[in-house]
Amino acid sequence: MTLSMQIRRPDDWHLHLRDGDMLRAVLPATAAVMGRAMVMPNLRPPVVDTATAAAYRSRILAALPDGSDFQPFMACYLTDRTDPDDLAHGFESGVLKAVKLYPAGATTNSDSGVTNLDALSGVLERMADIGMPLLVHGEVTDPEVDLFDREARFLDTVLEPLLARHRKLRVVVEHATTSEAVDFVRAHADRVGCTLTPQHLLANRNHMLVGGIRPHFYCLPILKRARHQQALIQAATSGEANFFLGTDSAPHAKHLKETSCGCAGCYTAPAALELCAEAFERAGELQNLEAFASVNGPTFYGVPVNEDTVTLVREPWQVPAFAEVSGPAKGVVPFYAGETLQWRVANML
Ligand code: NCD
Ligand code: ZN
Ligand code: ZN
Which of 23, 94, 229, 311 is most buried, taking the most CB atoms under 10 A from its CB? Predict the structure, then answer.
């Protein structure tokens, strides 16, 4: 007998869709399963205001497969020049859902990021007033700080003081990778949420580096040691309301990953929910997959849960080895390409 399980349609609270040919190639995988997604603004040039976000949103809607009711939520890139009135207008008119903080230089396409957070107090106060959340790529960029310590250092030296200065500001620690991040979120549970990615639930740095270097496991914040992976699995599978799914699906052309200086980002969209099911089953907590993937995110953002459902069947299948992209990118290699997963989404659109 085939085992199956039905859960409310999930949402992806941290997603990179890119633009143009790449957008058209990757969007269907997400739209087939997810009801909604928080779309990251790190395009080149980035999505830094309401007008740019509205135009990007239209391009996403135009790239959707016929009949899809997938809904993109737009995050606006915080820069040293962000205008609080524009953010408030974008939020209140429904175009913008959140603001994204990239410390300058922290990750892919973050060179327009914030250089001095202190100068943005007015913007952050305004966001706190209107209830617009700040999503953070939480890593310091100080060259003196070891790459593996950058998240924990950010929480202590940047985010803790920021929360103390802005007592009403709501924050999401994006793609958390450490036990310190899990503790931090729990300590500020009244107003801090946390996205967790399938790759950080399924892998630690040994998976990336033992027996050969695997570029498709390379993302930022970088995979940490097993002890941290265990803390993330425990948080995700606990059912606790502050932890929810953000795939951080971040496609880069195959030739830009498999090279001497490869890009950071894992393309998880083709198997995002199935990868999570794998992690939850291994933890013996499949019953909490729905809270993590479909309930906790909407609750944090104050939107209704999706009315419809998806069915997962326990039927081994292989993650595709390659996803074609027209134009010069040619194609992307999904995370876990060619690997066998135990759970499969049955009712794809
Ligand atoms: C993301 C990307 O490629 O846009 N890469 C990544 O390694 N996670 C950027 C980000 O989310 O930091
Ligand atoms: Zn990031
Ligand atoms: Zn990301």
Answer: 229
